[in-house]
Amino acid sequence: MADPSNPIKFGVIGCAKIARKLIRAITLSPNTTLTAIGSRSLSKAQNFLSENRTRIDDPSKVKVYGSYEGVVEDEGVEAVYLPVPTRLHVKWAVAAAERGKHVLVEKPVGVEVGDVEVMVEACRVNGVQFMDGTMWLHHPRTGALRGLLHDQHLFGDLRLIHSSSTFRDADEEFFKDNIRVKADLDPLGSLGDAGWYCIGAILWANNYKLPTSVTALPKVIRNDEGVILDCGASFHWEGEDNKIATFHCSFLCHESMDLTMSGSKGTITLKDFIIPYQEHSASFDFSSDVKFVDLHIGWTSTPKRVEVSTELPQEALMVQEFGRLVHNIKVLGSSPDEKWPGISIKTQLLLDAVKKSIDAGFKTITV
Questions:
Q1: 73: buried, middle or exposed (CB in 10 Å: 19+, 13-18, 0-12)?
Q2: Where in this chain does the record put each Gfo/Idh/MocA-like oxidoreductase N-terminal domain (predicted)?
Q3: CB 3.0 to 4.6 Å from 45: which of 64, 190, 215, 251, for a disulfide?
C-alpha cells in the first residue's frame, strides 16, 4: 500500500473546467497531493488556484507557473494530469514521461491511435505509469457489474450492448467557443468527448475483446468546421461470440448516460454509468428470467435495484489507484501496469474505426 505520509506529488498542466474536479480528487485521495499548477499565463494559473482554494489542502504549498514547461521541469512533481486540448496531449505527455513523470491524461487520449501509441511508448521507455481519465471504471459499482456479467446462472451469455452519452449545453456559446467543437483543438467533437465513454463501456462489457467490424450509423451532424456533433455506430463480433453493440453520442440531445447489457438469461441497465446520480452511492437495475404474465398484461417481476456505496467519489478512487501504481514503481521497483494503456489504445482504435466508417460513407470497417 502507498504511504499516506509520503503522497505522490501531482502537477496539473492546463486549467480547463475538468481540472477543478481532479484537483479536488487529488486532495480527497489519501495517497496524492497537489504541488503545482501550470497555465499559458501566470495570471491564469494564479486565478485558477485562487478560485479553487477550498478544493486544496494547503494552497500556499502549490507552485504556480505561467507555462506548461514549468510543471514538466519541476523536479518536485512526480506525476502530471493533462486536461489540455487533445491535439496537445502527445507533446506534453511525452515531455512529462521523458522527465520521469507519470502521466494521467484526459480523454479522448489522442486524435488517432498513433498518438496514443506514441504516448504509451514514451511512458514505457521511461518506466512511468500511463492512465487515461475514464473515472467510472474505478467505481465499486463497476466491479459489482463485472461479477454479475460473469454469472452464468443469472445473466447467461452476453448478447447485446447499447450505450449512449449525450448532452445539450444550455449556453449557445458552447457551439462557438468550446474547445470540443474546434477542429484545431479537439477535432473528434462528440465522438471523442462523449463517444469515448460509450466505446469504452462496450469494450469493458466484452472483456476488451475487439469486434470483428464497425459500421457508423447513417446519420451524422457536423458543425461548420466539420467537427462531429452527433453520431452513432454498431459493432459486430462474428463467430462464436456473435454479438452486437450499438451506441449514440451527441452534443445536441438531452442528458443521457445509459448502458444496457442483455444476456441470454438477464438484463442489466444503468442510467448514469459515466457520472452517478449521487457521489457516494450508485445503483443499477437487474432482471433475470423475466416473462410476461398470462394474456401479456404485465411482467412476472420487476427489475431488482442494486445499490453500491463508496466513501470516496469515483474520480478520487481513480487518482488513488494511479497513486498506488506510482508508489509501487517508485518504492517497490514494480513495472508500470500495462492494463491501463492497453485499454486506452483499444478504445482509441475503435473510435478511429467509427471515424473511418463515417468518412467512407458509412461503410463497414474491418477491425
A1: middle
A2: 8-131
A3: 64
Domain that holds residue 114: 8-135+314-338
Compute the radius of gyration of the chain from its Cα atoms.
Answer: 21
Q: State residue 86's pLDDT score.
A: 97
pLDDT tens readout for residues 337-352: 999 999 999 999 999 9
Domain annotation covers residue 2? no
Cβ proximity of 237 and 243 under 8 Å = yes
Residues 307 and 318 in one domain: no
Same domain, 171 and 229: yes
**pLDDT tens, residue by residue, 140-165:** 999 999 999 999 999 999 999 999 99
Cβ proximity of 282 and 139 under 8 Å: yes
Specify the pLDDT at position 3: 64
Instruction: State pLDDT tens for residues 308-333.
Output: 999 999 999 999 999 999 999 999 99
Q: Are 192 and 151 members of one domain? A: yes
Contact 174, 189 (CB under 8 A): no
Residue 264 lies in a domain: yes
| Residue 242: predicted pLDDT | 87
Is there a single domain that holds both residue 186 and residue 253?
yes
State how far Cα 237 lies from the chain centre: 23
Q: In this structure, is residue 3 part of a structural domain?
A: no
User: Do the domain assignments include residue 126?
Assistant: yes
DSSP type of residue 194: T
Task: Determine contact, residues 268/284, Cβ cutoff 8 Å.
Answer: yes
Cα separation, 357 vs 41, in Å, equals 40
Question: What is residue 329's predicted lDDT score, i.e. its pLDDT?
Answer: 98
Q: In whole angstroms, what is the distance from residue 44 CA to residue 66 CA?
A: 8
Query: 10 Å Cβ neighbour count for 80?
Result: 28
By percentage, how much of the chain surpasses pLDDT 70? Answer: 99
